[in-house]
Amino acid sequence: MIILNGGSSSGKSGIVRCLQAVLPDPWQALGVDTFVESLPAAMRSSSAGIEFAPDGEVQVGAVFRELEAAWIEGIAAMARAGARVIVDEVFLGGAQSQQRWLRALAGLEVLWVGVRCQGAVAAGRELARGDRTVGMAQTQAELVHRGVRYDLEVDSTRRESLECARLIAARVH
Amino acid sequence: MIILNGGSSSGKSGIVRCLQAVLPDPWQALGVDTFVESLPAAMRSSSAGIEFAPDGEVQVGAVFRELEAAWIEGIAAMARAGARVIVDEVFLGGAQSQQRWLRALAGLEVLWVGVRCQGAVAAGRELARGDRTVGMAQTQAELVHRGVRYDLEVDSTRRESLECARLIAARVH
Amino acid sequence: MIILNGGSSSGKSGIVRCLQAVLPDPWQALGVDTFVESLPAAMRSSSAGIEFAPDGEVQVGAVFRELEAAWIEGIAAMARAGARVIVDEVFLGGAQSQQRWLRALAGLEVLWVGVRCQGAVAAGRELARGDRTVGMAQTQAELVHRGVRYDLEVDSTRRESLECARLIAARVH
Amino acid sequence: MIILNGGSSSGKSGIVRCLQAVLPDPWQALGVDTFVESLPAAMRSSSAGIEFAPDGEVQVGAVFRELEAAWIEGIAAMARAGARVIVDEVFLGGAQSQQRWLRALAGLEVLWVGVRCQGAVAAGRELARGDRTVGMAQTQAELVHRGVRYDLEVDSTRRESLECARLIAARVH
């Protein structure tokens, strides 16, 4: 497995698509966005689920955490059954978020990748994308990396997605 | 778990969203579309992966089948870890496709639902959606139900998605 | 030109795509959604622009009206230059909204079509689509038709999009 | 009016969204993508309309050109009626494509902007986006600028969309 962690608009999705293109084996992309989209619409704007404030802050509730735990178990089971999975995540809880994955992935080979991007640059890209709540990029830029341990860090501030993907692919065997 | 099986443009996605809205507990929606989107772009048009012919025929290859097996294991693991999952599927192999799920879901409570829609009506809706290869709806309308056993069948030909969802929800406890 | 007017989730877009498929000449689809998407993101949630309240009510402001007037002039000019245009609209102001178009279209041949759908059924379809603010369908179902004059009305409550499109196409020469 | 011309994946859309955010007045974004989406599905893969070859080449036919002429007339009419419009274009015909706009825009104040991006970098971004036919970026990178005259050129190879937008905005009064 490859787990990428980075703030909103740090370029994770683009790096994941490039990784899928440059890696010789078929790798599946399953990230936190896939999980959130699988939830009932009502949970995507409730205090028990996940809430996106107009200022870019994101809050998740108890039910979200329960469902997320089952999701993580499922992804781990896919990997144990032979799937190669790239997970792109936003560790709002920093080291604590990583712990949730570490427990479930015991025994699996995982490459941990931090995707850094300067807050101001990520905020500009958020504006350019036009489909995200403005403010998330800046808020999350540092927050998501607190206490998280990586095998590799890439910085998309001045590096293209494809270059970042190549750096990561070089570490996959 | 709830597994819905039906041809393209038979109305499965709409029924799933209505089910999520009418069921009191939070149910996650994870179907074959989520799986296909997780694959590398190159696999979405290769003979080893999945191919959508201009006439609406769909072919899947050996690598697709391997990854699908791991996907099914993972979904089963999510359910065992406490998630309530609605899977919407297109059983191109009929009874054989159902077998793949049955083996992995041993011990889990599953409601099997067939979503029927007359080919001509589904073909009209396919045209109205505008985002699917024209021909899939007609080709798959009967094909996907061959030999498949259901706890319940709903017919979206003349019934709204919300009505179908209510019929299904009445069978969930 | 063909102008379709109907509430949110009354099935206009599906009818438009079917119309494009069944009409022998190439007709372009340019509706109020295209106009709204062309606006700056900031105008899509401001009192001067357009606001979508959580209960499904939609308010438009003064700047929106000014830009809309120029948009209507432009669409009329396309038609005068030889384009065949299908406009799908939501006349929140009823007869008054129609007036805005009538003035600009002087001299052009226009087929006015009302797309009706019972509020409860449209609300169910809104839920099934999952991408619209719940409440708009019910609120707009009657409202948008107040005082509007049509050459033809179609009812999508129990008629498929393709059938509605065929009824409309039969009136186009 | 502001007209941006650049190859596929050169970053035009992102620059347009940033322009809308930094310019004090409301500017509408209406580009060639909006035009292509307005066409019947059948025209989006026909020799009379527009064809996207698997290698990234794009061919447009006679009917496409006729409808495009009417579209250009309509955009010009919107601008004459007071709209501020940003058009993002892909001049497959270079100077000849620009001529089509110049004729229609007589008397209007237009800022012509070339958006440059090195072919290799644009190709990488095309891969990262994952929603475009691979090959278009490289094929169009130089082609679209042949003989086209600009008031201003921005290079997105090493400059962020927001920076490019600010350079353009500084020329708008």
Write the layout of secondary structure elements.
The structure is a homotetramer of 173-residue chains.
Chain A: E1 2-5, H1 12-22, E2 28-29, H2 32-38, E3 50-52, E4 58-60, H3 62-80, E5 85-89, H4 95-104, E6 111-116, H5 119-129, H6 136-143, E7 152-155, H7 161-169
Parallel strand pairs in A: 1-5, 1-6, 2-5, 6-7
Antiparallel strand pairs in A: 3-4
Key structural traits:
7 strands; two-stranded antiparallel sheet; 7 helices; alpha/beta; 173 residues; 5-stranded parallel beta sheet; homotetramer
In words, what does this structure look like?
The structure is a homotetramer of 173-residue chains. In chain A, a hairpin with a 5-residue loop joins strand 3 and strand 4. Chain A has helices spanning 12-22, 32-38, 62-80, 95-104, 119-129, 136-143, 161-169, and strands at 2-5, 28-29, 50-52, 58-60, 85-89, 111-116, 152-155. Chain A has 173 residues and is an alpha/beta fold. The first copy, chain A, is 43% helix and 16% strand. The longest helix of chain A is centred in the middle third of the chain and has 19 residues, at 62-80. Chain A is globular and about 40 Å long. Chain A has a 5-stranded parallel beta sheet, with helices on both faces. Chain A has a two-stranded antiparallel sheet with strand order 3-4.
